[in-house]
Amino acid sequence: MADLRILVTADDFDLGAEAARLEAGADTGAVVTFTGRVRDVDGGLRHMEIEHYPGMTEVALTRIAEEAAARWSLAAVTIVHRHGRLAPGARIMMVGTASRHREAAFEAASFLMDYLKSRAPFWKKEVTAEGAEWVAAKDSDEDALDRWT
Amino acid sequence: MKLQVLYFAWLRERIGLGREEVETQAATIADLVAELRAREDRYDLAFSDMAAVRCALDQELVPIDTPLGTAREVAFFPPMTGG
């Protein structure tokens, strides 16, 4: 059974420590980590606010991690997702996977990201000098799930 | 029955609260939405485009026509934007 680590936090996280944790298994030959950051494309972003649904968030993330562990042979799965007010450049979230070989680690990490985008109860709001706006979900994020079904 | 009803993101902002207890006889989530919309303009406005609203029953994502059954908690929110 894969070691699942789910963390929902307002605080920043230590990417190095999370990666090291994924390297713990003796037969782990591959570790993949992906980090999402607050992007400021137009130079006008003051900060991002991330709202979530306490309770459902942890359940949804655990289910997504369990699904990945059921589909690929993984030693460990990590999902960390922050909420609250985040400055441009701040880390928002990460996923990490550990397996014997790289294919499973890459594919599972990609699967985790696709499901996180549209099946985990987080909502992003961008605050600029002009005001605040909720980030709209993209059709392409929903379509991305098709390749896993 | 008494239900905890939660609102997130712009639904929370338009309705003006994040959580409330609602006494209802609604059979489905869609019926509950109709009851809420009949209450006040702010609810009517928030639920005016149901294509942009998702819902969860006891923290499980479900379709809008799902029966309330013995659920305790219903949540309404826009499509999720995690990651």
Question: In a nutshell, what does this entry contain?
Answer:
Chain A is of the alpha+beta class and 149 residues long.
Description:
- The complex is a heterodimer of chains A (149) and B (83).
- Chain A has one domain: Molybdopterin biosynthesis MoaE subunit (Aldehyde Oxidoreductase, domain 3), CATH 3.90.1170.40.
- By secondary structure, chain A is of the alpha+beta class.
- Chain A contains four helices and eight strands, in the order βαββαβββαββα.
- Chain A is globular and about 50 Å long.
- In chain A, strands 1-4-6-2 form a four-stranded mixed beta sheet, with helices on both faces.
- The relative contact order of chain A is 0.24.
- Chain B has 83 residues and is α+β, with helices and mostly antiparallel strands.
- Chain B has one domain: Beta-grasp domain (Ubiquitin-like (UB roll), Roll).
- Chain B has a five-stranded mixed beta sheet.
- Classes of the chains: A alpha+beta (149), B alpha+beta (83).
- Chain A binds chain B through residues 36, 51, 53, 55-56, 59-60, 81, 92-93, 113, 116-125, 134-137, 142, and chain B through 6, 8-10, 12, 56, 59-61, 75, 77-83.
Describe the SSE topology.
The complex is a heterodimer of chains A (149) and B (83).
Chain A: E1 3-9, H1 15-22, E2 30-37, E3 45-52, H2 56-71, E4 76-82, E5 84-86, E6 91-99, H3 102-119, E7 122-128, E8 131-134, H4 139-143
Parallel strand pairs in A: 1-4
Antiparallel strand pairs in A: 2-6, 3-5, 3-7, 4-6, 7-8
Helix pairs in contact in A: 2-3
Chain B: E1 2-7, H1 9-15, E2 19-23, H2 29-39, H3 41-46, E3 54-57, E4 60-62, E5 73-77
Parallel strand pairs in B: 1-5
Antiparallel strand pairs in B: 1-2, 3-4, 3-5
